[in-house]
Amino acid sequence: MNNIITRSRNIIKNVRSFPTNVWLGLSGYETQKFEYLDYKVDNSKSKGISSMISDRHRISLGIFIGAVAIFGCFILRNIFIDHANSEIQKYNTAVRVEDNNKFNYAVDSKQGRIISSGEFKTKDPVKFEKF
After folding, report:
1. What span, in angstroms and rounded, lies between the C-alpha atoms of 29 and 22?
2. Paired residues of 12 in beta bridges
3. pLDDT digits (tens, 9 = 90+) for 1-42
4. Residue 8: which region, alpha, beta or left (left: phi > 0; alpha: psi -120 to 50)?
5. To 10 degrees, the CA torsion angle through 66, 69, 49, 1?
6. Which of 19, 26, 121, 131 qualifies as a FRET site for 109, CA 20 to 30 Å off?
7. In whole angstroms, what is the distance from residue 128 CA to residue 14 CA?
8. CA separation for the pair 12, 40 (Å, rounded)
9. Distance CA 52, CA 30 (A)
10. What stretch of H or E contains 22?
């Protein structure tokens, strides 16, 4: 195990120092060698974080995260639906316009349904010859 760790450290060290070694070698400097610190610790009894949490706690944590995610989705869904409904209501609500300028503005800005009142006069009355 220690042999694998030593070999991987040497490979990582060579890969990290490659550009620096090339530049310093071209400049005439000699490379310096450093050793890793060794604390002489027995790693056989070390525990990972997964062994610190029991299966019961993992399951309850997963259920809690899932419930929060579902609750958040419902909240976002309701926000989007409320916004869509307010937009639909805005375009389905009729606007009563009595002024020509407001009527033209409402038509140009596509506000939706418009109720307008006024007098309508025909230029030429309709004639039916057969009647």
Report:
1. 10
2. none
3. 567 777 887 877 777 777 777 777 787 777 677 777 877 777
4. alpha
5. 100
6. 121
7. 102
8. 21
9. 47
10. helix 2-27
Question: What are the start-end ranges of the E strands in the chain?
Answer: 95-97, 114-116
Q: Compute how many other C-beta atoms are within 10 angstroms of the C-beta atom of residue 97.
A: 19
Q: End-to-end alpha-carbon separation of the chain, Å?
A: 111
CB 106 within 8 A of CB 95: yes
The H-or-E segment that residue 117 falls in is none
- Reading phi first (left if > 0) and then psi (alpha if -120 to 50, else beta), residue 112 is in left
Residues 112 and 93: their CA atoms lie apart, in Å, by 7
pTM across the whole model: 0.36
| Element (DSSP H or E) covering residue 48 | none
Rounded to whole angstroms, the Cα distance separating 76 from 79 reads 5
Residue the block writes with tokens 């310096």? 32
Percent residues over pLDDT 90 in the chain:
15
| Residue of higher predicted confidence among 68 and 35 | 68
